[in-house]
């Protein structure tokens, strides 16, 4: 409550003192920390950039920590915007004086910014901002680091009309990036198959084309076997008045920076009935979670 009153006092002071405008120093003083805080600094010479893990590691020094600083947090911030509007952070586990080697997330292929911070009930202080240029990496490293993608599977055109909202898939590459597995691959199977087990069902492994940013899954008996009994995932070639033709390939595609993955037009095929139990709309795209 004290902080709110302090901020609200500024316009009140300006209105009350129309004959004498406030000096800049007076305005800044009202935003200054109300008690003692540690000093914080970054050693740029210690910086190590790992673009493949999308991380930056640096030595951060804090001094002047005392037991009277309530709810004290010491840490390192990173952001891709210089104003740190949206930032990642890592905190020191036990706030004490000393130099800590801290690692924080840094996006590959863009300029990042980092700064150390100390915050308590009395306010916050920051080190100088340091600019970090992180080299770009291939799309498949970005996809690996993303790990999960989320999106809504709609089925309005030819399917049940259900929207499977916020469905999350998990991807996993082999060590040499030659193959990729998608777990929780289909939302209908997750929602409807009796005895569903996420650890043993609803996944498939495909071959990665590093150049074209695609993953191709083997199609047998008109669909991809996702370890869900008689249910297969069948890519759709076309829908006509005579029926539905299935494709002999099932390919998912990543965009250039691997921030999104797009499924082919497909449906869930019940091989025991030779019929599609769900047909999704074309162009289902999931974004990095």
What portion of residues is helical? 10-25%
**String of helices and strands:** HHEEEEEEEEHEEEHEEEEEEEEEE
Tally of structural domains: 2
Largest sheet: 8 strands, antiparallel, barrel
Q: Specify the CATH class of the largest domain.
A: Mainly Beta
Shape: elongated
Q: Which secondary-structure class do the elements indicate?
A: mainly beta
- Lateral arrangement of strands in the main beta sheet: 9-10-11-12-13-17-18-21
Q: End-to-end distance, in Å?
A: 36 Å
Number of DSSP E strands: 21
CATH topology of the largest domain: Lipocalin
Report the radius of gyration as a whole number of Å: 27 Å
Summarize this structure briefly.
This protein has 289 residues and is mainly beta. The chain is 13% helix and 46% strand.
Task: Note the main attributes of this structure.
Lipocalin; mainly beta; Immunoglobulin-like; 2 domains; elongated; 289 residues
Describe this structure in words.
The longest helix has 15 residues, at 2-16. A hairpin with a 4-residue loop joins strand 1 (39-50) and strand 2. The chain is built from 4 helices and 21 strands. The protein folds into 2 domains: 35-133, Immunoglobulins (Immunoglobulin-like, Sandwich), CATH 2.60.40.10; 140-288, Lipocalin, CATH 2.40.128. Strands 9-10-11-12-13-17-18-21 form an 8-stranded antiparallel β-barrel. Strands 3, 4, 6, 7 and 8 form a 5-stranded antiparallel beta sheet that branches. Strands 14, 15, 16, 19 and 20 form a 5-stranded antiparallel beta sheet that branches. The chain has 289 residues and is mainly β. It has helices spanning 2-16, 24-31, 139-146, 187-192; strands at 39-50, 55-63, 73-79, 87-91, 98-105, 111-120, 123-126, 130-133, 148-154, 163-173, 179-183, 203-209, 214-217, 224-228, 231-240, 243-246, 250-254, 260-262, 266-270, 275-279, 285-288. It is 13% helix and 46% strand.
